[in-house]
């Protein structure tokens, strides 16, 4: 009996082979089912409900909701903020990524941690910090009031809040690409007589273009969908300081559900376009890595 037990001792390799050979195929289907059910509850069903509510009265009323003056102003303001914030954070992200990826210096880790602060701080807290700095009773409030400059409850505060929230995206996407590409090609270009500007445009930028575009797309999507920080510093005044996400909330509170869901469909469309572009860029990056 003891010899039989010894002969049936535990063999890890044999166990792995049994699991790999699919002795329990139902486990895979159960896990897939759980994942699909979870995604359905938190993503698919709510998204389908948004579209159903937006088009429940037909396509005509949906288009009518998209032509309301308050809605059009919210779209215009959202686009203006994006046109200001995205270029600023693109330039900042490139500069920050270059400094971090191409240099080793004391405080580099601290700089990377500071760059990640917007990921750790709640957007509402970020908006409150701006109010405490630039509000009427804030640190710089009296000085700004003397020179008749309005920051809070105006476009400047909304731009600053959106810029703070989206600050890390470009830098975080470009840093790993720069570190992976190295600097041999850049040094070779300088050796051949290329200036720093020529080196950047003809060597560095082509190497980082997919990561850069990925960061820009994420930045733009986050700017257009930002709610928390902007809601604190904007005042949410319809037709004046109301962005598209704020319009959705206000319209829903005022029982204008069809208008709210129509605006939500527009934001969902933006998210869908972002996902498609993200997938395209990821495939481009994978192809480049293979080459």
Task: Give the SSE layout.
Layout: H1 2-7, H2 12-20, H3 25-54, H4 59-65, H5 69-102, H6 108-115, H7 117-120, H8 123-134, H9 141-146, H10 155-165, H11 168-181, H12 184-191, H13 196-225, H14 228-234, H15 244-253, H16 257-290
Helix pairs in contact: 3-16, 4-16, 5-10, 5-11, 5-13, 8-10, 8-14, 10-14, 11-13, 12-13, 13-16, 15-16
Give a quick precis of the structure.
This protein has 291 residues and is mainly α.
Structural features, described:
It is a single chain. This protein is mainly alpha-helical and 291 residues long. The chain starts with a helix and ends with a helix. It folds into two domains: 2-50, no CATH class; 65-290, Orthogonal Bundle (MetI-like fold), CATH 1.10.3720.10. It has helices at residues 2-7, 12-20, 25-54, 59-65, 69-102, 108-115, 117-120, 123-134, 141-146, 155-165, 168-181, 184-191, 196-225, 228-234, 244-253, 257-290. It has 16 helices and no strands.
What is the third-level CATH name, the topology of the largest domain? MetI-like fold
The description of the largest β-sheet is:
none
Structural class computed from helices and strand pairing: mainly alpha
Q: Ranges with pLDDT <50 over ≥5 residues? A: 1-8
CATH architecture of the largest domain: Orthogonal Bundle
N-end to C-end Cα span: 60 Å
The CATH superfamily of the largest domain is MetI-like
Class of the largest domain in CATH? Answer: Mainly Alpha
The overall average pLDDT, rounded, is: 85
Helix count equals 16
Question: What labels describe this entry?
Answer:
291 residues; mainly alpha; MetI-like fold; globular
């Amino acid at each position: 009996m003891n010899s039989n037990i010894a002969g049936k001792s535990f063999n890890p390799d044999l166990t792995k082979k049994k699991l790999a050979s699919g002795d329990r195929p139902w486990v895979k289907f159960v896990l897939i089912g759980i994942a699909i059910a979870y995604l359905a509850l938190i993503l698919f069903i709510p998204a389908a409900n948004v579209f159903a509510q937006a088009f429940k009265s037909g396509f005509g009323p949906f288009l009518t909701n998209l032509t309301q003056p308050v809605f059009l102003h919210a779209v215009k303001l959202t686009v203006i903020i994006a046109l200001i914030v995205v270029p600023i954070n693109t330039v900042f992200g490139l500069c920050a990524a270059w400094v971090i990826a191409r240099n080793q210096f004391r405080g580099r880790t601290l700089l990377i941690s500071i760059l990640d602060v917007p990921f750790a701080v709640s957007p509402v807290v970020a908006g409150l910090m701006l109010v405490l700095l630039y509000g009427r009773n804030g640190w710089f409030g009296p000085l700004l009031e003397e020179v008749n400059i309005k920051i809070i409850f105006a476009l400047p505060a909304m731009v600053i809040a959106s810029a703070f929230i989206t600050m890390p995206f470009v830098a975080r996407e470009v840093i790993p690409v720069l570190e992976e590409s190295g600097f041999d090609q850049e040094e070779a270009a300088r050796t051949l007589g290329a200036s720093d500007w020529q080196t950047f445009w003809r060597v560095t930028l082509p190497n980082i273009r997919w990561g850069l575009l990925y960061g820009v797309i994420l930045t733009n999507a986050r700017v257009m969908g930002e709610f928390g920080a902007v809601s604190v510093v904007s005042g949410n005044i319809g037709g004046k300081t109301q962005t598209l996400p704020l319009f959705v909330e206000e319209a829903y509170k005022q029982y204008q559900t069809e208008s709210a869901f129509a605006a939500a469909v527009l934001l969902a469309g933006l998210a869908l376009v972002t996902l498609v572009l993200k997938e395209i860029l990821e495939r481009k990056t994978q192809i480049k890595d293979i080459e």
